[in-house]
Design goal:
By secondary structure, chain A is mainly β. Chain A contains no helices and eleven strands. Classes of the chains: A mainly beta (112), B mainly beta (111).
Chain lengths: 112, 111
């Protein structure tokens, strides 16, 4: 069935270190993946997306890696800052479908 | 540019009451959707619409109705609220297959 899950519900890193948030998906027909950041009391905000014809995409301080062989998605945040503290969600869309299916989220905490 | 606007931000209902959560977007997006967010459950799709006059069910549609009479508005109706509908509700819209733009959320408590 269609599901998106995360390996860890919480992640704690030192300020300045790199963060890696992982996500597994089960639908081999998924063709679009997206990462969102949600700060407390706010709506999710877009971080970065990637289509299934790509393995890697980079943004400002963020990189998304897609491994279709093992159905795994990761978000890498470079030089983590206090403002990166939030819950991060991955989501996927099946080819031909309209809806986005979200994972449960990972809470990222930055230690000073 | 307001983006996606949700009202009200907070609402308390008694079991059995009805209400409508409003959602409006000013980006001329064809696709609009409603999600609910519960602790440990992520975001679950309630209903969505690919254009005016067209709506469809998501993962958890029971207890909710929607309509899409204009491109801008996509209200979510609870006809008879239940405690299980206590949640934070998010409206989101997009153009094409790109990113979803979310509103700030509506926190609903049903007593």
């Amino acid at each position: 069935g269609e599901s998106v899950g995360l390996h860890l519900p919480t992640l704690s890193v030192q300020e300045g270190d790199n963060s890696i948030i992982n996500c597994a998906y089960s639908n081999s027909a998924s063709d679009y993946f997206i990462w969102y950041k949600q700060e407390s009391g706010k709506g999710p905000q877009f971080i970065i997306d990637i289509r299934s014809n790509m393995d890697k995409r980079q943004g400002q301080r963020v990189t998304v890696l897609l491994n279709k062989t093992v159905k795994h998605l990761s978000l890498q945040i470079a030089a983590t800052q206090p403002g990166d503290s939030a819950v991060y969600f991955c989501a996927e869309k099946t080819q031909g479908a309209q809806k986005l299916v979200f994972g449960q989220g990972t809470r990222l905490t930055i230690n000073p | 540019n307001a983006g996606v606007t949700q009202t009200p931000k907070f609402q308390v209902l008694k079991t059995g009451q009805s209400m409508t959560l409003q959602c409006a977007q000013d980006m001329n997006h064809e696709y609009m959707s409603w999600y609910r967010q519960d602790p440990g459950m992520g975001l679950r799709l309630i209903h969505y619409s690919v254009g005016a006059g067209i709506t469809d069910q998501g993962e958890v549609p029971n207890g909710y109705n929607v309509s899409r009479s204009t491109t801008e508005d996509f209200p979510l109706r609870l006809l008879s609220a239940a405690p299980s509908q206590t949640s934070v509700y998010f409206c989101a819209s997009r153009v094409g297959v790109g990113e979803l733009f979310f509103g700030e959320g509506s926190r609903l408590t049903v007593l």
